[in-house]
Amino acid sequence: MFLLAFLCFALDFTAVASTDSAGLSPECRIDTLLYNGEHAINMVFAAEGYRSGELEGFRKLGRGLAEYFLSAPPFSDYTEDFNIFLANTVSDESGISSPEEERNTFFKVRAGNHGIGRLLVPEDIGKCEKALDGLLPGWDFICICVNSKEYGGGGGDLTVVTGHALAGEVLLHELGHSIGGLADEYWSAAEFIGEFPNMTLSPDNAPWSGIPGTGTYPLLRPDGSTAAYIPCRTTENSAYCKMGMLGKDFCPACSKAISAAIEEILVNRRRNVPDVL
Questions:
Q1: Is the pLDDT of residue 5 over 80?
Q2: Is 182 exposed, middle or buried (0-12, 13-18, 19+ CB in 10 A)?
Q3: Structural domain tally of the chain?
Q4: 158 — phi, psi (to 5°)?
Q5: N or C end of the chain: which has fewer CB within 10 A?
């Protein structure tokens, strides 16, 4: 089984980062779940809102998310091209901050960004990246795992998920943003409308033109007017797309964008890292 082969790679080492202006804890144990070499892409799952005695819960969540990630297309095509690590970052308090309550946590993730309760974003992404630079130099993608069972997440420069029952699906959707540079294929706010691999304002010049299995469909505002155009129409009975509804597959346009982004990183990595003799 894939699970057994996957977990056989588990080994531990300790990383120490210097304390920075964010006041983040300087010590963190790094668990290596999967290692495919220097050419591989470094994915880090990091704990947020977990006190030291709660980290086993984070490790269980992180292992499950990593397995879910590697088993889902198109990421499953690249199981030998990722290194996967768990960063056991310790917070002073459990949970995360919200508009109603402040929590002292490692990455300072907050719920309720842009007026959207489920949208989880760190207060200062730059400080988060600096902290990970000290803990695990050379990381490519970070997924912050929040100590909460509430539904929510975020994607972009960093990916954020919770321990909700749909966390695996949320992870894949958010990695569509973080890795593939994809847009949501549903209306959320005007600021998220624009030109993306899976969204366009110019239907005659759609970036997915010519990709089999795609079309050009309007993305509607709440008032029924057209905000943009997307490559598929997501319904309860449709096969696509995860960027429009959890539980669906990525549509061909989104899959191609994700694969192209991964391939670009791998080409650059192989160009810059000498082969091991």
A1: no
A2: buried
A3: 2
A4: -130, 150
A5: C
Model pLDDT for residues 198-249, shown as the tens digit of each residue = 999 999 999 999 999 999 999 999 999 999 999 999 999 999 999 999 999 9
> What tokens were used for 244?
């429009």
Whether the pLDDT of residue 4 is over 70: the answer is: no
Could you tell me the pLDDT band of residue 119, with boundaries at 50, 70 and 90?
confident
Q: Can you say whether the dihedral through the CA atoms of 162, 158, 218, 240 is positive or negative? A: negative
Is there a contact between 240 and 234 (Cβ–Cβ < 8 Å)?
A: yes
Residue 61: CATH number of its domain: 3.40.390.10
Please give the residue range of the domain that contains residue 203. 184-267
C-alpha dihedral (240, 244, 245, 251), degrees to nearest 10 = 20
CA angle (36 as vertex; 182, 156 as ends), nearest 5? 20
Could you say which DSSP state residue 26 is in? S
Beta-sheet strands, E only, within the chain:
11-16, 27-34, 41-48, 82-88, 109-110, 121-122, 141-146, 153-154, 159-161, 217-220, 226-230
Instruction: Let me know: does 4 contact 32? Beta carbons within 8 Å.
Output: no
